[in-house]
Design brief:
Strand content: 25-35%
Radius of gyration: 24 Å
CATH architecture of the largest domain: 4-Layer Sandwich
Distance between the termini: 53 Å
Strand order of the largest sheet: 1-2-5-6-7-8-9
Number of helices: 12
Bound molecules: MU-OXO-diiron
Helix content: 25-40%
Structural class: alpha/beta
Largest sheet: 7 strands, mixed
Length: 395
Amino acid sequence: MQAKKISERITWMGAVDWNRRLFDSLIPLPEGTSYNAYLLRGSERCALIDTVDPAKSDLLMAQLANVEKIDFIVSQHSEQDHAGTIPLVMEKYPQAKVLCSDKARDMLIDHLHLDPERIQAVADGDIISLGDRSLRFVYTPWVHWPETMCTFCEEEGILFSCDLFGSHIATSALYAEENPQVELAAKRYYAEIMMPFRSFIKKHLDKIQTLNFSMIAPSHGPVYNKPDFILNAYKNWISNDVANKVVIPYISMHGSTEAMVTHLVSALDARGIEVHPFDLSVTDIGELAMALVDAATIVIGTPTVLFGPHPLVFSATHLANALRPKLRFAAIIGSYGWGTKAAEQLTELIPHLKVDVLGVVMCKGFPREEDIKNLDTLAQNILEQHRGLEKAVAE
Ligand code: FEO
C-alpha cells in the first residue's frame, strides 16, 4: 500500500496485513489488521508517530525512502506491532530521537534494545514544537499496556490514539466513515483487548474529550473522520448497562451437556431473554468475547473430565475472567459419569467477575426430568434477576 495524505502535513504510512489470522498466538483476526504509522511534517521538524510490526518493516521503510529527515519518532506504545520497526527507523535517521512516556522508556530498552541515549521521555501534557505544528502528549495508561499514551496535534485537530479505538480489519479505505463493518471490527477489538481496562477508558474519554479534534487516527484500522462514530460506540460498550442477555459457552462430549444447553436455550428464549450458546469446540473466541461485552449473565456448560471441567471450558472461563466483562450473574450446568468437582473448580476460576452465582445444575449421565425441571427453575431465576436489574435502572 502506498502512503496516503490525510492533510498537507499528515501522511498515513504503514501496512495492511491482509492475511494475518492470529494475534498474540491467541486472538483470532478473521478480517486481518493494519499497523498505522503517521508522518507529521512541521515547518521546522518532522515526526513519525508509531511504526509497524517487524514482519512488515519493509513496507514502512519503502514508504520512507524519499523522506529525508525525521527528528522525532513518537512511540505511543511499546508493543512490537507498533514499536517493532523503530530500530530500523533509528538506523535510517541517526539524528532522530524517540519520544515516549516515562514508563515506556525501559520497556523499549528491554524489548527492542534501543540506545537509551536516543530516548527522551515526555510527561503528560508536554508539548513539542515542530515549528508551525505541535505535538501534545496525553498519558492514557492501560490501553493497552501501562505505558501507553496518545498524541494530539492541535493545529491539525487530530488525535493519534494507538491501540485505543483500534479495529482489526484489513481494508484499503483510509477513513472509517460510519461503516458498520468497521464498528463491528472495533467492537471485536474492544472485546478482545480493551474490555479489561474499562474503568481506565472511562477516565481517558473524559480527558481526551477536552481536546478539540475532528479526527481520531488509531494505529490499527481506518482513521475515524467522524469521531463521534467511535466515541459513542465506546461510551456504550464501557457503560454500566447490561442487556437482557445470556451467554452460554459450553462443551459436550457425549450429548448430555448439549441436551441441557439446548433445553436452557429454549427456556430462556421462551422467557424473552436473548441467548447466545457457543460450542467451544468450534467457537471463534472473539465472537464469545463480543457477546460478553453487554451480557448480564454467563452460564458455563461443561462435562466432567477427570473430576474437573473440560479443558476447553477451563480455558474459556479463565479468558472470560481475564476480560472482566460487566456480567452480573453466573451459573454452571453440565454432566458427570460418577463424580465431579467441575462446578467448584469453575467457581474458583472467576474471581474477577463481580457476579452472583445463581445456581449449579449438574446431572449424572443423560439429563432426566428432574434435571430439566432444575434448568427451568434456573431460567426463571435468571429472568427474575434480569427484571430486577431493569427495575433498578428504571428507578
Ligand atoms: Fe496494537 Fe497493544 O498493540
